[in-house]
């Protein structure tokens, strides 16, 4: 079994991903059974898996496909077509079809490229269906929000028309959040997806994940500590700090041991140090005004109002409100209302670990 790639699950084999899987049993069973039933009875329950970045969408997708195709009877009736996670080569509906053809094989890919040059997307659709040879096409598209944005409403309509008229294609997508292409009546795919959300990783799941890592590297002291009442308490304490994102716990598992986890802070600091390049890059991509608001939120421990944040960073309420709106749209912050005051919005960081990171880096 190869060592799994934490940031690129698509580069890992199924056995490696299965070894890392904890919790979410009901969802994995539901999705696996849904695809198997579709291959048998011709139903096409298109599914969108929604969860924040790092929550394990790609991991879940790959495990579900592995389990589905491990059944020989299902595998004979399914052609899996995996569109690349980054979707960087997609700028139109024809591009999406070419990427799907590339996932099938070089011969179909070359045929699709020629048809794209001839501006014949219908011909590419026909080539893909011919390659399926009567099998159900399981079209798995990660970051579906980005793909739909790239192909536009016209491309979305073309995809919907192909899926509906061919009755051969089952779409399984992922997205960090719901987006207008599936939630707005103005777009062709409105109401067409069954929406599934990934359940959060509990402290018990996190403990199981750490024990699995300890077993794989033969660290019996760490495994023994994790099974003790003190070990479970320390895992719960760390869970409150770093949250429920599986990727964070896998990173922690690579750098934690019994002494560091027992003291809590060394284990968390080791994780924060490993995350520095990732967080730095994301923060540097923000405009300066929005960076200042994020840092100000991190310096406190509770949600803040627009007026409080505006005063703290030295801008007008209007400027702060507009910047916070952009940060909320991009998933950096969340807003809420107090029970007794429905007029004031209170903002806080979406990622609990971001506050710890900024405080750690700020000394």
From TrEMBL:
<feature type="domain" description="HTH marR-type">
    <location>
        <begin position="293"/>
        <end position="343"/>
    </location>
</feature>
<protein>
    <submittedName>
        <fullName>Transcriptional regulator, MarR family</fullName>
    </submittedName>
</protein>
<dbReference type="InterPro" id="IPR036390">
    <property type="entry name" value="WH_DNA-bd_sf"/>
</dbReference>
<dbReference type="InterPro" id="IPR036388">
    <property type="entry name" value="WH-like_DNA-bd_sf"/>
</dbReference>
<dbReference type="InterPro" id="IPR000835">
    <property type="entry name" value="HTH_MarR-typ"/>
</dbReference>
<dbReference type="InterPro" id="IPR011991">
    <property type="entry name" value="ArsR-like_HTH"/>
</dbReference>
<dbReference type="GO" id="GO:0003700">
    <property type="term" value="F:DNA-binding transcription factor activity"/>
</dbReference>
<dbReference type="Pfam" id="PF12802">
    <property type="entry name" value="MarR_2"/>
</dbReference>
<dbReference type="InterPro" id="IPR027417">
    <property type="entry name" value="P-loop_NTPase"/>
</dbReference>
